[in-house]
Specification:
The protein is about 50% helix and about 10% strand. With about 150 residues, it is mainly alpha-helical. The protein is globular, with a radius of gyration of 17 Å.
Length: about 150
Amino acid sequence: MGVDISDLVERKHVSLQDLSGRSIAVDAFNTLYQFLTTIRQPDGTPLMDRDGRVTSHLSGLFYRTATLLELGIRPVFVFDGTPPELKRKTIEQRRAVRATAEKEWKAAVEAGDLEKAHKAASRSSRLEGSMVDESKDLLDAMGVPWVAA
């Protein structure tokens, strides 16, 4: 849920090379959203296969995971379970932001404003259940463990 623990744990910056030989937990949903928001065409359209299925999450997940493995880091991806009731308001706010951003994206594309379209498209990203399943399948194929929390 994004709990601030800075009063309990001292912040320490480490490089990826410092993590070589270690296992790390990776927030899977956060990671997949990162790829959905950043791996896009100039007009904001996500990366897709020839059948029109979004593949931004898979491309990013594959290359990021390969990089970690090449550095000797053993990632374990953690997929959150059902959000607690306390998070309902936050989830509703996020849905509203996505809906507004999607309208802005379509309007910007129509107007030919690619910069505005790209920014709005990034805020309109949705992670579908099928994308989560595809990501788990990719991790399985790569031999990388994942956990459903």
